[in-house]
Every structure is written in C-alpha cells, then in structure tokens.
C-alpha cells in the first residue's frame, strides 16, 4: 500500500483500520487493510464492483455480526478513547450507538416520518415527548428535510419520494448524534437533483461528524471528499488527499480506474 | 438462425396466444368445479335445513324433540373452546416462530426442529386426542373440560401458527432489520418495534386459518370426552351458579363440560328419527358459515396488510 501525507499529522484521527481482514466463511473479502479515518472529514471509498467496499464499511458498525460465519481479523481503532471496535469484548450494539449508517437503498420503516427519526432515541430509552419533538426537528433540519415534511410528520414514511426517503434515513442516523457516519452508495438509487441535495448535505454534515462514504461515481468522490481510498480485490491500493489521488495517483491501478481504463 | 418474415412472426405469436387462451380456459374450468362443489354442498345443507334456521335454533338447547332442538350449547361451546385454543396457540406459536427466525442460529438442531414442525402438521388429529386424553385429562387433571379441548386443539394448530409466523417474518426485507439494528437496537427491540408489528397481519391470517380448521375438528374432541347432549351453559363469570348461589370465578367456565358444533351435528345424524337430519343440515350450514366467515376475515387482513405495509 502507498500512502501520501499521513506521516505528517494534519488532522486528528477518528478511526484507524489496522491490518484488517475479513472472511465470509471461507471467502477472504478484505486483505490486511491499513487506513486512517480523519476526524470531521469526508473519506471516500472507490473501487470496482466486488472489491470489498461495502464489506469494509460494514465492519465499522459490526453489521457483519448479524450473520453467522463471518469473521474479522485485525483492528479498527476508534478515537479518542482508542477502543478496538472489533474486539470481542466490545458489544456490537455499543458500536452501532456510536457509528451511524445510511444504506444504498433508502430503507425507511413503514411507520410515520416522526417515528422513523425518533426510533434511535426511543431505542436509547428516551420517551419525553417534548425532548423527542425537539430532537426530531433538529435531525430533520440537519438532513435538510424539515421544510418539506414539517406539516405531515405523521404521514407514512414510504409515501415520500426516493430522495426524501434517503434524507429521512440520514435524519434517522443523525438523531442520535453519531461520531462516525457510514454511507454505502447513498445516491445510487436517486436522480441527479436528489443526488445533488445529498452531496450538499454531506458537505454540510462534516462540520460535526466524520463521514466515510462508498461511491461508484468518481465525480462524486472528487466533489464531496477530503480523502480518497482506492480498493481493489479486497486490498487497499492507495489512500491520500482526494486532490492528489485524482491528479497524480501513485499506483498504476488507481490511475487506470480513475481514468476509466478499468472497473 | 435466419431472419423470420413478418408472416412467420405473426404465425408464431398466434400459436402462442392460442396456448394462452387454452390454459386460461382450463384454469377457469378447474376454478368453476371447485366453487361449484362448495356451492352445492352449502346450498344442499341450506335447503334441507332452512326450516330450522330461526332465532330459536340458536337460543335453545338440544332436546329429545327435533323441532324444539337448538344449538345453543354447541355454538357457545365451540366459541369458548376456540377462545382457549387461540389464547394458548398464539403466544406459544408466535414466540416459537420468532425464536426460530430471529434468534436461533442455523444448526442441525434447528434443522431437526424444522422437520419436526412440518411433520407435526401431518399428524392425524385423533393422535392429538389420544395424547391429550393422557396428558390434559388425566395427568394434569383438567378433566373433560373446555380447557382440555382448547389445549388439544391448540396443539393441533400450533404448527400452522408457527409456520405462518415464520413466513410472515421472512417476508420482511433484511434491510428493515438492518436499518433497525444500525441505530443500535437490540434484537428484542427490533422484534418489538418492527418484526412483530409488520408480521402481525400474516400471523393473524395463519391463526384464523388454524382456528377455522380447529372449529371443525371432531375426532380429538370426542376422544377427550365432550358430551353429546348437554342442556346448560358454562358458568358466566361473577354470576350466581347452581343451588348454593355462590358467585362463579372469572375462569370457572374453562373447567365446565361442553359440546361443540361438529359433535352436535354428529349426534343428530346418528339418531334414527329423520327429523333430526334437518337439524343436522341446519347446524352444518351454521358451521360452514362460521368457517367461511373466518376465512373471509383472513383474506381481508391479508388485503389490508398489502395496502398499509409497503417497503
Ligand atoms: N454474504 C456474503 N457471502 C459471501 N461472500 C460475499 C458476501 N457478500 C459479499 N461477498 C463477496 O465479498 C466481496 C466483496 O463484496 P462487497 O459487497 O463488499 O463489494 P463492493 O465493493 O461493495 O461491491 P459493489 O460496488 O458492487 O457494491 C465480493 O467478492 C462478494 O462476492
Ligand atoms: Mg457495495
């Protein structure tokens, strides 16, 4: 792996993958990944289909623990407390309380808009109506959805448009103030206008939360991210400042992918 | 392959359409046969029993004179037995279904349980009757009561409830479960807020279909000893009973002797006096009505579920 610039500390780290490998049963999907995640920055993951981007992303909130036969090796250090997210002593639920996730396909619950956003708070035992109202409004505002839904908070979430549903899912993740937010191709099911809205949102959100985003769209990675990582066949090929990765990649394979000669 | 001329393409399409039409016709004929059998059966019973279908038929006990006999104790008995059956089978079946789908890890143990549940659904109902006679009636000492009957039928429909619970749960997309877990919910919170509510219409459909089967069951109920002639109702809670005038407890009725619709019908058909056959036909019609309206309820629930729960 080739890295740029991470020798000189620029920003504090939020997390760091250390020699991370992952197995679906006997299939080794991640091969010894080392990578820093800078605090309050957007890090983009790019790479051809099947290279392990989702697998890598879903390690950060221990989503793989939901299914039998999955196994991690190595560590994901989480700062400032230096917890190893993958440690057997760390409850995956604790991890998910600190690391939020937005999925590729909007997956609102078939409940009201309000209940969708309030869900994470309810799970944490919050039931005070006034506090819930306040937090739900806050989250919807942060997700740039408040103005569109404030008059119909009791409407069923699946009646929203695809782009609105995705912003609702972002609001749902934001309501509980995660420290790290994972996005797995959040705009692949959306039209260009809805995509633009989400990208703008990501830009806005990095003021308060660290973001790790998987995207198939090179322009999107260039637009929204501060750092970019290129993955290929389960390996981290190259990591660095987004500008540098796109302007003068060090690795031949990265260059081929970015210039569209592969992938 | 060579290019087809427009004429050849049209001939090909015509042949395909012809088969479409043929298959459609076949399907409609099969459907019509099925429907006709039901209509004939129900219509026949209705015609033969119509003279007895009045209010008194529902409010009178069975009697030695056919014209004054009613099905009061039978329909009340059927209803109460169903109540016990539902109260026992629903929590057990739903909990088992949820456990198998949401908690149990796939292993050879769960595979064996799965095979057993499928086989359980195929066990002849009389065998459940024999089992219940030994366990509920004698070992537990519940006697020949509504409780024994209800629990027996609960065992009978348990596989149906478990299977429909699991199917309802499986139809919930994985992304909903992941969405819930991703905000930090526990498995139980995910079940409570999502899995159970979204699966409920499907579960209820299964429960109702199970109850519709149970309400017509005769063999296991005879085995555990339902009465064929009974001229009193189970004690209503908090009313005076019998000669001592003591008040009945909330659950006294579950220990009461009882009869149910199919047994009443069976009893009437086995009488030598042909007048009782009219009663049997009328009661058969009522039982059919009960079963069909339960099925209609199940269909309505399924329809509502499709309308309100979208992913
Ligand atoms: N549940 C699974 N069981 C076994 N192998 C899996 C499973 N999920 C993914 N894989 C394999 O792991 C590898 C990485 O998959 P992953 O979904 O992480 O790729 P990706 O980079 O996200 O691809 P895409 O861009 O298409 O979403 C692939 O080879 C895939 O076939
Ligand atoms: Mg993916």
TrEMBL record, chain A:
The keyword Disulfide bond does not apply. It comes from the Bacteria. Residues 15-258 form the ABC transporter domain. The lineage of its organism: Bacteria, Pseudomonadati, Pseudomonadota, Betaproteobacteria, Rhodocyclales. InterPro entries: AAA+_ATPase, ABC_transporter-like_ATP-bd, ABC_transporter-like_CS, P-loop_NTPase, PstB-like. This is Phosphate ABC transporter ATP-binding protein. GO terms for cellular component: membrane. Pfam families: ABC_tran (PF00005). It comes from Thauera terpenica 58Eu. Gene3D superfamilies: P-loop containing nucleotide triphosphate hydrolases (3.40.50.300). Keywords: ATP-binding, Cell membrane, Membrane, Nucleotide-binding, Phosphate transport, Transport. The keyword ATP-binding applies. GO terms for molecular function: ATP binding; ATP hydrolysis activity; phosphate transmembrane transporter activity. GO terms for biological process: phosphate ion transmembrane transport.
From TrEMBL, chain B:
One of its GO terms (cellular component) is plasma membrane. GO terms for biological process: phosphate ion transmembrane transport. InterPro entries: MetI-like, MetI-like_sf, Phosphate_PstA. The chain crosses the membrane at residues 21-42, 74-100, 120-140, 146-165, 195-215, 221-238, 250-268, 280-301. The keyword Acetylation does not apply. Residues 75-298 form the ABC transmembrane type-1 domain. It is found in: Cell inner membrane; Cell membrane. Pfam families: BPD_transp_1. GO terms for molecular function: phosphate transmembrane transporter activity. PROSITE patterns: ABC_TM1. It comes from the Bacteria. Keywords: Cell membrane, Membrane, Transmembrane, Transmembrane helix, Transport. CDD domains: TM_PBP2 (cd06261). It is a multi-pass membrane protein. Belongs to the binding-protein-dependent transport system permease family. CysTW subfamily. This is Phosphate transport system permease protein PstA. It comes from Thauera terpenica 58Eu. The lineage of its organism: Bacteria, Pseudomonadati, Pseudomonadota, Betaproteobacteria, Rhodocyclales.
């Amino acid at each position: 792996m080739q890295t740029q610039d991470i020798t000189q500390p620029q920003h504090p780290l939020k997390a760091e993958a250390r020699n991370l490998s992952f197995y679906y049963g006997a299939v080794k999907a991640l091969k010894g990944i080392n990578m820093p995640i800078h605090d309050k920055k957007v890090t983009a993951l790019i790479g051809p289909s099947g290279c392990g981007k989702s697998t890598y992303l879903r390690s950060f909130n221990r989503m793989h623990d939901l299914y039998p036969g999955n196994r991690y090796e190595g560590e994901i250090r989480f700062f400032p407390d230096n917890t190893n997210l993958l440690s057997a002593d760390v409850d995956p639920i604790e991890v998910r309380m600190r690391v939020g996730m937005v999925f590729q396909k909007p997956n609102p619950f078939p409940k009201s808009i309000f209940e969708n956003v309030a869900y994470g708070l309810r799970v944490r035992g919050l039931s005070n109506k006034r506090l819930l109202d306040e937090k739900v409004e806050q989250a919807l505002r942060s997700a740039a959805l408040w103005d569109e839904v404030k008059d119909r908070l009791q409407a069923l979430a699946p009646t929203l448009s695809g782009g609105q549903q995705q912003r609702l899912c972002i609001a749902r993740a934001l309501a509980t103030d995660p420290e790290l937010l994972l996005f797995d191709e959040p705009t692949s099911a959306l039209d260009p206008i809805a995509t633009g809205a989400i990208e703008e949102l990501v830009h806005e959100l990095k003021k308060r939360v660290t973001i790790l985003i998987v995207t198939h769209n090179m322009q999107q990675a260039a637009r929204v991210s501060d750092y970019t990582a290129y993955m290929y066949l389960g390996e981290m090929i190259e990591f660095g400042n987004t500008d540098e990765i796109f302007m003068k990649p060090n690795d031949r394979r990265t260059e081929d992918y970015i210039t569209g000669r592969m992938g | 392959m060579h290019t087809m001329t427009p004429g050849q393409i049209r001939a090909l399409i015509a042949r395909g359409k012809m088969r479409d039409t043929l298959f459609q016709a076949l399907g409609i004929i099969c459907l019509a046969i099925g429907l006709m059998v039901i209509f004939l059966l129900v219509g026949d019973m209705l015609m033969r029993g119509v003279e007895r279908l009045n209010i008194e038929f529902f409010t009178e006990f069975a009697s030695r004179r056919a014209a004054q006999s009613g099905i009061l104790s039978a329909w009340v008995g059927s209803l109460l037995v169903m109540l016990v059956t539902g109260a026992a089978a629903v929590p057990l079946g739903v909990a088992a279904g949820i456990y198998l789908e949401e908690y149990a890890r796939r292993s050879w143990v769960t595979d064996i349980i799965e095979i057993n549940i499928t086989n359980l659904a195929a066990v002849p109902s009389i065998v459940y009757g024999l089992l219940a006679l030994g366990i509920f009636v004698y070992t537990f000492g519940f006697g020949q009561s509504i409780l024994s009957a209800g629990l027996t039928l609960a065992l009978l429909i348990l596989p149906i409830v478990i299977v429909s619970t699991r199917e309802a749960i499986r139809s919930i997309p994985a992304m909903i479960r992941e969405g819930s877990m991703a905000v930090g919910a526990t498995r139980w919170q995910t079940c409570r807020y999502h899995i159970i509510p979204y699966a409920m219409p499907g579960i209820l459909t299964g429960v109702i279909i199970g109850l519709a089967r149970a309400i017509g069951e005769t063999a296991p109920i005879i085995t555990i000893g339902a009465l064929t002639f009974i001229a009193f109702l189970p004690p209503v809670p908090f009313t005076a009973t019998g000669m001592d005038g003591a008040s009945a407890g909330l659950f006294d009725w579950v220990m009461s002797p009882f009869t149910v619709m199919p047994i009443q019908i069976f009893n009437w058909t086995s009488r030598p006096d042909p007048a009782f056959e009219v009663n049997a036909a009328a009661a058969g019609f009522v039982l059919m009505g009960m079963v069909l309206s339960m099925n209609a309820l199940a269909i309505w629930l399924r329809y509502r579920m499709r309308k309100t729960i979208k992913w």
